[in-house]
């Protein structure tokens, strides 16, 4: 069934998601602070809006993809925001990656306004967004999750219900902390293999069938050669930038402090990605950490 969708935040991830919804036949009205981003979305079949209000006032579903918790709070809660202008009964889905506390706060505000809301951060990068193969980690009630699946299945391949509001964000930051740690470990292994005179392809072929096998190696190999579509074979053009990885690692360490969880490897991973930023390489793919570890950045 065709629905009216208001989509707010159409950057590197949002553009692919909005385009796929439009291709499926939904009427997608988009808003972003970047006029260039809006223009790109219009080229993909979306309709431009000049404000949050105009994007959401007739929407059956509102989807947001925003940089941080403060932006989510503002877009939903400000005078010109979603809560004041979305129609009664609209389904609200926030796909931003933000801190758990803010996600739960915004969900409570939505409930107070009689809206159903899902936090649904994603994994899969810009390639997954463009191809409609994202993984969604969802927090919210059973009813809200079931309501949301029909639209999320258009833009995602794996849709998981992690539990109550905020649990989607919890799953995302834990997953990405693990991803950052694994990428660093994989990079260290390939750098050591090279120093020992072991060819990267040979090491890849061996390790992918051995106990060291992991997604960072087999799907996103940081060493050039073994995985043709990986950023390492495209001068580390970002599919998922080092800056975005650092954002998620910072969220994981804030949560670690708040909960008292011990995450020493997560803390070290954050420090290494901070160093990439300090050296001016935040825009490179996060797999370029292999070059930092090799002292070649």
Plain-language structure description:
The protein is 51% helix and 13% strand. The chain contains 14 helices and 9 strands. Helix 8 links the parallel strand 8 and strand 9. It is globular.
Stretches with pLDDT under 50, minimum 5 residues: none
Using the alpha-carbon principal axes, give the shape. globular
- What is the overall pLDDT average? 96
Specify Rg, calculated over alpha carbons: 20 Å
User: What portion of residues is helical?
Assistant: 40-55%
Span from first to last CA? 50 Å
In the sheet with the most strands, the strands line up as 3-2-1-4-5-6
The class by helix and strand makeup works out as: alpha/beta
Instruction: Let me know the largest β-sheet.
Output: 6 strands, parallel
Separate helix tally: 14
Task: Describe the secondary structure blueprint for this structure.
Blueprint lengths: L3 E5 L5 H10 L3 E5 L3 H9 L3 E2 L3 H5 L4 E4 L4 H9 L4 H4 L5 E4 L5 H13 L3 E4 L2 E2 L1 H7 L2 E6 L2 H14 E8 L3 H29 L4 H8 L7 H4 L23 H18 L4 H15 L10 H5 L4
Helix pairs in contact: 1-7, 4-6, 9-12, 9-13, 12-13
Structural features:
single chain, 297 residues, alpha/beta, six-stranded parallel sheet
